[in-house]
Amino acid sequence: MAAARTAASAARSPGAPAAAAAARTRRPPSARPARLPPLLVLLAAAAGPGAGGAARLYRAGEDAVWVLDSGSVRGATANSSAAWLVQFYSSWCGHCIGYAPTWRALAADVRDWAAAIRVAALDCAEEKNQEVCRAYDIHFYPTFRYFKAFTKDFTTGENFKGPDRELQTVRRTMINFLQNHTDGNRPPACPSLDPIRPSDILSLIDKRGDRYVAVLLEDDSSYVGREVILDLIPYESIEVRRALGSDTAFLQKLGVPSLPSCYLIYPNGSHGPVTVGKPLRSFFSSYLRSLPGVRKKPGSLPGRPSREESSEAVVWRDFDRSKLYTADLESGLHHLLRVELAAHRSLAGAELKTLKDFITVLAKLFPGRPPVRKLLEMLQEWLASLPLDRIPYDAVLDLVNNKMRISGIFLTNHIKWVGCQGSRPELRGYSCSLWKLFHTLTVGAGTHPKALDGTGLEDDPQAVLQTIRRYVHVFFGCKECGEHFEEMAKESIDSVKTPDQAILWLWKKHNLVNSRLAGHPSEDPKFPKVPWPSPDLCPACHEEIKGLGTWNEGQVLLFLKQHYGRDNLVDTHSADLGGPGEGAPAPGEKQEGSQAPPEQPPADHGAESLRPPSLLPPRARLSERSQPGLDLLLRSRAGGEGRRGAEAAAAFLGMGFSSLDMSLCVVLYVASSLFLMVMYFFFRVRSKRWKVKHHHPSV
User: Fold this and answer.
1) d(CA 361, CA 463)
2) What is the distance of C-alpha 413 from the center of its chain?
3) Between β-strands 346-348 and 390-392, what pairing exists: parallel, antiparallel or unpaired?
4) CA 683 to chain centre
5) Is residue 211 over pLDDT 60?
6) Which of 561, 667, 547, 479 has the alpha carbon at shortest distance from 94?
7) How many CA atoms lie within 13 A of 310 on its CB side?
């Protein structure tokens, strides 16, 4: 999982001199508010817009990659004269950032293949692309999909099935994909990639023409011939074919000494093997392109999107590294609920159980503003009340988006990073906020041990960690990152026996992840991944024993409880809470600008115990007015779920009503049904009598 906090690298244990020396020599700046130099701010602004702006890892008009978005992907891939290989990625995904140079190199390497197959990318992190990524059923990043030429009906494409994602492997898989086209839907610009027979070569030799004919002779397992054929697509006055060199006698007759080789037939009728420096694709292609009269066809390359101009500049917000920002947590929660989870059309089984447990942990331990906590509590209570074995996620989105305009609930609908800002738009951001969120949850469980009572997660020191682990494994978009996290969990999570150990376990693993990613393309040069907390943030956390740097884990624990506690959370740059029905606090609630609810005592930051104020207000209940509407939303979203969904929704509708209310509802329902049945039979009998009365038999 790509970690993007200001700090963090390998977790050090006593006796790690190299890491200690690195920490001393690579000491980060002091804990004053973080500011970027003016030049770096200008460079960041030039790099592209913030969340929701233009694609960041790939630049239209600069890279050979075709940059697609929600407005172009369907038009590009539907009924296209060329096949497509599209990478659906997320600009915050560390693995996607690391893979971007390979994808750019691949696109440049096969640039001349564009009339037959094109290499494209679409950023699912952009808000305008989120719906289309859901339509294409994209759950993890990066996801690679092939789209055949001349596909008229909508399709989500074919998944890439290569053994790895190295450039050569992907290039060869592209060739296999082209060969899987039938004659009826093969791109018209793509020559035949099948081998010709020896007799065909002899007929080509005997026939004069106005062009060169190059025959690549190779083994059956070789891709050189097919690659050279595709390389020469945009060139005129030359035709390239391939043949298998299984007939040794025929090769000797042609004078071909080894494989692969190129046998060239000139326009004047002369012919013979050609000599190149090395029997490699690049040498063959370069030689054939340089032949007299061989040149690129006019307009051989299809039109490409023009370079996108930045529509907005990156606004840098000064922040204090010693503080935790509400804006980061709420922006991360917005992305988690509305984008990452929304990639799943419906949830069932283990996925649904993971969602319910994660929302429960959030509802009980999230330290944000009251309207956000109230939304999470309402969502948790709503999910717990529905004994469905499958729910459409759109129903969850309806509540998150407050379609019923319930007063007093709120969640920002846009992203504004503060402590999680990066020096470039694709750096830090969501992965940073997710780490912060996870730390606040473990700290909340450690400092408020009764918060999970009655949820089924109580009395288990690993409950929060295991819930986080399952969420990352099932839902986190960066699949490779999730696999790394799962490996760490399998290795040592069972050693956690107390809530304090859970806090320290996550801290150690976060440092370990950042140590692995130090120097990775996803590392922000402005915020290097160093051991965290740094000495200037927590001097007491760092010690030396016999000259070796080490952590004082007792002091680290106190620091983590203070840093991720409610008292350290500031609302600077947070989104406005909105008006009535749009997340405004309910009557009597405080529209907060303070750090904690006024009824809570301040935390005691003594050396022995850190006790932040209660993380939860009194339990919020779904109002009677909102229950039927939420139920209708669920039933409209789950219309195809069948009888079980309707029965479960009916059970949910009964929440908050007395037995007398429900009895009256049943009586009225039965009475209405009987009345309708009586009226039906009455009019049916009357209709029959009318037909008999007015019936005149023909004479």
Assistant:
1) 9
2) 18
3) antiparallel
4) 59
5) yes
6) 479
7) 16
Helix (H, G, I), strand (E, B) or coil at 87: strand
Residue 93: active-site member: yes
Distance CA 364, CA 694 (A): 73
Best CA proximity match to 569, nearest among 388, 369, 425, 420: 369
CA distances from 303 to 105, 141, 299, 306, 415 (A): 20, 28, 9, 9, 34
**Catalytic: 541?**
no
Tokens 């049916």 appear where?
684
Residue 653: pLDDT band (50, 70, 90) is: very low
- Quick one: tokens of 332? 């991360």
C-alpha dist (Å) from residue 518 to 7, 11, 528, 541: 11, 13, 7, 22
Q: Are strands 295-296 and 235-236 parallel, antiparallel or unpaired?
A: antiparallel
176 in Cβ contact with 515 (< 8 Å): no
Burial class (CB in 10 A: 0-12, 13-18, 19+), 5: buried
Among 319, 318, 312, 314, residue whose Cα is nearest residue 41:
314
Those residues with Cβ within 8 angstroms of residue 100's Cβ, 6 or more apart along the chain or in another chain = 57, 58, 521
Of 179, 99, 78, give the one whose Cα is nearest residue 143. Answer: 99
The pairing of strands 610-611 and 604-605 is: antiparallel
What pTM did the predictor assign?
0.66
Write down the pLDDT at residue 278. 93
In whole angstroms, how far apart are CA 104 and each of 87, 384, 426? Answer: 11, 46, 16
Q: Which of 112, 123, 118 is nearest to 69 (CA)?
A: 123
Quick check: 103 and 13 in contact, CB under 8 A?
no
DSSP calls for 196-232: BPHHHHHHHHH---SSEEEEEEE-TT--HHHHHHHHT
Written as six digits, the tokens of 478 are 């960066």
One-letter amino acid of 206: D
CB distance 84 to 50 below 8 Å: no
Spatial CB neighbours of 197, under 8 Å, sequence gap ≥ 6: 243
Residue 630 clears pLDDT 80, i.e. is over it: no
Active site residue: 93, 420, 432, 478, which one?
93
Predicted confidence at residue 464, as pLDDT, reads 95
Mapped to the 3 state alphabet, what secondary structure does 281-321 carry? Answer: HHHHHHHHHCCCCCEECCCCCCCCCCCCCCCCCCCCCCECC
- Lowest model confidence (mean pLDDT) among 131-140, 662-671, 680-689: 662-671
Among 290-304, 418-432, 474-488, 644-658, where is mean pLDDT lowest? Answer: 644-658
Kindly report the three-state secondary structure assignment for every residue of 366-424.
CCCCHHHHHHHHHHHHHHHCCCCCEEEHHHHHHHHCCCCCCCCCCCCCCCCCCCCCCCC
Q: How far is residue 88's CA from residue 159's CA, in Å, rounded to a whole number?
A: 11
* Residue 489 structure tokens: 């969990």
Residue 627: burial class (beta carbons within 10 Å; 0-12, 13-18, 19+): buried
CA atoms of 569 and 100, how far apart (whole Å): 35
Q: Which residue type sits at 231?
A: D
Residue 186 to residues 74, 81, 154, 208, 614, Cα–Cα distance (Å): 19, 8, 18, 28, 65
∠ at Cα 433 (430, 435), nearest 5°?
A: 110
The proportion of the chain whose per-residue pLDDT surpasses 70, expressed as a percent, equals 76
- Distance separating alpha carbons of residues 694 and 66, to the nearest angstrom: 74
Strand order in 66-68's β-sheet? 66-68, 117-123, 83-89, 143-147, 158-159
